[in-house]
Structure formats: C-alpha cells, structure tokens
C-alpha cells in the first residue's frame, strides 16, 4: 500500500482512519467506565473524609477494592481534593503526558521526519492498542509507571547515571512488578543505580508505613498473599504464565514456580546479551516482557510493557513482524474464549497474548541495531589532548599549543561499551478493581479486570 503524497490525500486518509478508529472503539473493545479510577478515588475519599481503612473499601455493588501497596494510596492522596469527574480529567491528562514521555524516549527526534502525518498515523495506531485502550478506559496507572521506568533507561543510555534508579524505585513502591528492573540493574552491574532504586523503594514504603501503619501491616502480612482480592486466576484477561496454568486447571504452586524460574533464566541470559551489546532499550523491553510473564496476574492492560519491544523490532529492521504482532494485540481476540477456554483452540486463542509475550522474550532481536540510528542521541564532551612539542626548545607563550575547545559530539553508533547510544538502552500487583465480566464481554458495562 502506497501512502498519499499530497497534503489533501494525507488529510483525507487521516479522516478515514479516525472514523474507522472511532467506530472500532465504540463497538468492539471492552469499555471499562473508569472502574479502577473509581477504586482509587473511592478508597482515598473513604480514608480521608470518612475515617475508613484503605483495604476495607469496596466499590459499591462489587467485592473489589484497593490492592496496591500502601505507598500507592499515599501518592494518590491529592485525589481527595477532587470529585470523580475532575479526577477522570486529571487521570486522562496525566496518562497523555506520560505517553508523550514514553514516545519521546522510545522514538527520540525521529518523529520530526514524519511531521503531522506521521503523528496522526501513530495516534490512530496507539488508540487501537488494547492494553493502552484499557489503561485509559480503566483510569489505570500503567503508562505512568512505564514512563518512570523508561526515564531510567534514558538516563543510563545517555550517561546521566547519577540520577538513574529513582524512577524504578518509585514504580516498584507503587506496584510490585517493576521491582524486576532492579534485578536488571544488578544484572548489568549498575550498582549505584540499583542502590538508588532500592533505597527509593524502601524509603517510599517506610514513609507509607509511617503515614498508615495499620494498612501497611495488613498489606504486607495478609493482602499481598491473597490473590482472591484481585480476581480469578483463570479469568481470560490474566495473560500471564499463571493464567495459562489456571485455565488448564493446574493450580499447583510448584509447577508455576518451575516455569517462572525458567522464564527468569531466559530473561537473565537475553538481558545480559542486550546490556553487553549496549542496547538499553532492548534490555528494558526484555525485562518488561519477563515481568508480565512471571507476575501471578497480568491483566491485558498491563501489557503496555510490550510497547518498547515493538520499537526494538522496528529499529532492528523487522517492521512487518512488529506490525503483525501489534495488530493481534489490537483485536481483543482473547475475549472470544471468555466463556469457554477448553480444547486446543481455547488453549491457543485464550492465551494469545501470552504466546506473543513469550515469543518476544525468546526472539526479540539483540545486537542488530547498529545499522539504524540510535534511540537517543548522547551528548558527549570531548577534550583533545594538548600536542607535545617536537623538541624541548623554548616556545613563546603566544605560540604555545593548548587544549582544543570543548565540543559536542553525537554518538551515532550503537556499539558496545558504557553509555553509547540508547540502541542499547532499553501483582503485578494488579489492581483489585477487577470485577466479573457480564455475559456479553463486549458491552460497555463489562469489567474485564484491572
């Protein structure tokens, strides 16, 4: 398919795509009615204004309430100043801003090459991506966490390691899944960044324990270990290894633990290769994939962590594969097996997103980005050494050679070595706001999970 070359043709195409996206999102996807945001807002409102306890609050008419660590509730305290409609507007703006940060880190300045037309096409594509649709529709925090984590990838890739680790630490204190990125920092021997992330996560958790000791005690001793507070493990939205096993009727912890160990071994091997090749975004992408697989519950909207993987595929010269996998994740195909996931078709279809995540973990290109431009441009200060005089003769001061002036150099290669280009750079603590879906999972009143 050839794209139009005139502005009139491009504008017409954009209008057609916008109409198609609008029709699709109005009929096919599951609309979530801000369910998770209502959990957050209701919890904070009950806690602040009515003396309620964080983990006692339930959304009216449901059995679901707050399941994040206590620091998440503390971070959401400003929500007590807003009514629900205002909170929805703020959540939308924050998610849009976070998505902008994510795209800026992953794409860099390349977007300028495509102008408004490329931005419009990208917006249409992102609007179709089911995990992203669900994140916005639920009022979820996934994109915010992704932005925090990728900011650390950007810091590592651009040589600004002094501040690296803060984003990962905060993300891990809000949800547990991003803690695996601390493992990546340890794996890559980024001791300072790993220490910063650990201290930030521990400090945030300790602060929450000081603010609300009873809630912290309850969460870390009871709520964390009770998966029934979050939702059914076999629910089709749970696209993790545990979800696959639960839909097969296998609920034993030993089997799950063995598979998780194998997944982590594969992740450690592949992430180490990415770090050795200097490809930080690939390393962070692999870590996001592994986190989705090993988490006991990975709802569909948690799969926003797959976005960096598609950028890596495109940068490595595999746009068709990226497009095909991305298209599957736009279809809501797993919901076809909402009522019955038995049989071969159920095993393959109801776990389609798991197979994509696992396939990316195993075959995401590593060490193939040197042919393309780096994800980020690194600013390097280079000072040329002073030339030595040929003879020890005395030279007038005005003729003395000196250091060359400091210049700015842009690293265009993606080879290995510390800090060269972002081509190297880059429960879940699920929200307990899942509620059983209605008999028609495509209706706007359905709640898939969160």
Automatic annotation (TrEMBL):
Keywords: Cell membrane, Membrane, Transferase, Transmembrane, Transmembrane helix. It is found in: Cell membrane. It comes from the Bacteria. Residues 387-450 are annotated as: Disordered. The keyword Disulfide bond does not apply. GO terms for cellular component: plasma membrane. It is a multi-pass membrane protein. Residues 424-434 have a biased composition (Polar residues). It holds the Pfam family GT87. The keyword Secreted does not apply. Belongs to the glycosyltransferase 87 family. This is Integral membrane protein.
